Amino acid sequence: MIANIINLSRDKDASAAAVQAGKNLSSEGKGHVTIEDVSVVFGAGADAHTAVESTQLEVHPGEFLCILGPSGCGKSTLLNSVAGFVQPSSGTVAVDGVPVTGPGPERGMVFQQYSLMPWKTVRDNVAFGPLLAGQSKSEAQSIAYTFLNMVGLTRFAKHYPAELSGGMQQRVGIARALANYPSVLLMDEPFGALDAQTRLMMQENLLRIWEDFGTTVMFVTHDVDEAVFLADRVVIMSAAPGRIIDDFRVDIPRPRTTDITTDDTYIQLKRRCMDRIRSESLRAFEQQNH
Ligand SMILES: Nc1ncnc2c1ncn2[C@@H]1O[C@H](COP(=O)(O)OP(=O)(O)O)[C@@H](O)[C@H]1O
Ligand SMILES: [Mg+2]
Question: What is the pTM of this model?
Answer without folding.
Answer: 0.91
